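A quick word before the example. In earlier lectures we treated sequence and structure as two separate objects. From today on, think of them as two lines of the same record. Here is Neurochondrin written that way.
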Amino acid sequence: MSCCDLAAAGQRDAQSLLCSQLGKAGIMASDCEPALNQAESRNPTLERYLGALREAKNDSEQFAALLLVTKAVKAGDIDAKTRRRIFDAVGFTFPNRLLTTKEAPDGCPDHVLRALGVALLACFCSDPELAAHPQVLNKIPILSTFLTARGDPDDAARRSMVDDTYQCLTAVAGTPRGPRHLIAGGTVSALCQAYLGHGYGFDQALALLVGLLAAAETQCWKEAEPDLLAVLRGLSEDFQKAEDASKFELCQLLPLFLPPTTVPSECLRDLQAGLARILGSKLSSWQRNPALKLAARLAHACGSDWIPAGNSGSKFLALLVNLACVEVRLALEETGTEVKEDVVTACYALMELGIQECTRCEQSLLKEPQKVQLVSIMKEAIGAVIHYLQQVGPEKQKEPFVFASVRILGAWLAEETSSLRKEVCQLLPFLVRYAKTLYEEAEEANDLSQQVATLAISPTTPGPTWPGDALRLLLPGWCHLTVEDGPREILIKEGAPSLLCKYFLQQWELTSPGHDTSVLPDSVEIGLQTCCHIFLNLVVTAPGLIKRDACFTSLMNTLMASLPSLVQQQGRLLLAANVATLGLLMARLLSTSPALQGTPASRGFFAAAILFLSQSHVARATPGSEQAVLALSPDYEGVWADLQELWFLGMQAFTGCVPLLPWLAPAALRSRWPQELLQLLGSVSPNSVKPEMVAAYQGVLVELARANRLCREAMRLQAGEETASHYRMAALEQCLAEP
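And the structure line, produced from the sequence above:
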C-alpha cells in the first residue's frame, strides 16, 4: 500500500469530512493540485506538507496535512526513504487514535477513521523494520477483529480496510518473530473464521494461514485447534466434491492442515474418497504428484487407518503402492535424469505403508494375492533404490534424499533379506560407511531426519517420529543378515560390530541414571533390544570375534554395570531380558577375563540375572484343586510371548557359566535360588510344569549340585531327591545321590 492510496481510504463517505478538516487547518484543497505534476527528485510540495504535518497542533490539522501528503505522492514514486520520512512525521500516536476512536464526526461512517488508521499502518508495514515495531505488534488483536467484523460486503471502504489489514498481518508474518506474535494475538482463529465465513478477502485469510502453519505449525494448533479443525473439515469436504482443477490445488494445501494429533474421521473419509478419484484417473505428473504427496502425508500421520476396510480399500491401497513403485523406478533407474526428490520421498512413505500391510498377519487391508503381487512390485522398486545408492559418492552422503533412500531400504530389509541378496551384499560396505559417517556426526544425522520430513511429508514432522540416525534404520535388517554367513562376513570385515558396540554404549547412556527416560522415544529402547539381538547372533555364529575384539569387553562391562538397576525398573522387563541373556552368553566366552573373577560388578550382574530368571514363575492356586499349578508371574504374563525364548536361552547360558566360574555356585546358594526353585517345584502339580521347563530347571540344578558340595547338601535338605523323582529328573537325582 502506498501513501497516496490513503486518500481513497474513506471513499465518498469521507469526502465531506476531508473538506471540513482542510478548512479547519486553513488549507485550500486547490493547494494540492500542483503536487500531482511534480517530477523532481525532491518534491518541494511534499516537503511543505510534511512540515505542516510535523507542526500540526491538533487532530484536525494533522488529518488535513496527512491528506495533502497523500496527494503529493504518486503511487509509483514512493521509496523506502520517503516512506520513513512520512512515518517520522506522523508517528504512531495519530494512527493509534484513529484505530481506537469510537465516535466519528458528523456525516462520516464510524469505520472510515479506522480504515484510515489501518491504511497508515499498511503503509508503514511495507518497511520490515516498522512491521516488527512494538507499536505495530500491539495492534495485532485489534487488526484481527477487523477480519471478522460485520458490515456491508459491498462497501468499498470496508473492502479497502480488509485489504490493508491483510497487508499489515502479512508484513508482520514476514518478520523473524512475527508468526509467534500473530499466533499469540489471536490471528489464527480470526483467519479461520474469516475463511469459513467466505466473506471478502477469505482467500487472503487462507494464504496467510498457510504461511503461519508452515512457520509454526505446533503453536498454531496449540492456540486454535478447534478453528483449524473446522477449516480442515471445510477443505476436506471441498476436496471430496471438487470436479475441476481446484482439487489439485487442494492437494497442495491439505497436508499443511492435517493436525499433529488425531485427524477427524469424517475428514479422513473425504480425503480418501477424493484421492481415490484423482489417482484412479489418467493424469499428468503435475496432477498426480501432489496427490501422492498428500497420500504420503496421511500414511505418515495415520498409518493405514485412513483407508477403509473391504474390497474398495484394498484396491485403493494396492493402487497407491503400485503408483509409488512405478514412480520410484522411473526416477531412479534412468541415470542422468533429474530426480524429483520430494515426490520420490513421498513414494517411499507409501512403500513403507505397503511393507507394513504386506507383513501384517491380522486385520490386514490386503488379500494374500494382493500381497504377493505388491511384494514383487516393491522388490523391483527396492532394486532401483539399491542401484541409486550404489552411485552415491562421498560428496552426497549428507543429502536428505540419500537418508530417505537408506530409510526405505532399511524398512525393506527389516522384513525381507532373501530376495536381492546379491545386490544387498554388494551394497553393505556402503551402508556401513554411511552409518558410521552419520553416527560420528550425530547432530547432522538428526538434522537430516528433519530435512527428510520437510522434503516430502510435512514442515514439522507430525505423526511417528522419523529416527534421527541411519544406523537405527538398518538395525533390523542387519539383525537378519548376521544370521547368514555371507552377509555376516561382510559386516564383520567392514567393522560393523565395533560400530554397533559404540552405538549401543552411546544409546545406553541415554537410559542411564541422570537422564529422564520418560521423554525418550520408544525407538531408543527398541534400538537397544535390536542391538542385543545382533550381538546374540554374533555370540552364536562368531564366538571367536567376541573373544578377540576389545569392543566386546567394553560391552560386557556395561552390561554388568547396568543390569542390577535395570531389573528393578518397571516396564523395562524385555530390555532387561535382552541384557541379562546377552551378558550370560558373553560371560561363557569371556570367562577368563579378570572382570568376571568374582569382582563386585560381576557378582552384581549374576545376582540380577538370577533375579530375572527366578521371578518368572510362581505357584498359583486353582479352584477345586488341592495342588497349585506353575504359572507366569504377573509382570511376565504380558511380555512372555516376546520373552520366553530369551528366558530359556538365559537359563541355558547360566548353566554353562557355573562350571567356568567357581565362585558362581556359592553365590547362587547365598541367593537361595536353588532352594526356592525346589520349593516352588514341590508346591505345584508336576503335570502343570511343561517338559521344557523341567529340562531348564534341571540343567541349572544339576550344574550347581556338581559344582559345589554345599549346594548339594542344601538341595537334599529341601527334599531335592524326592522332587527330582517326582519330575523324573534322572540327572539331578543321580547327582544328589552322590556324596
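Notice the following. DSSP finds 38 helices and two strands in the chain. We will return to this example when we discuss secondary structure assignment.
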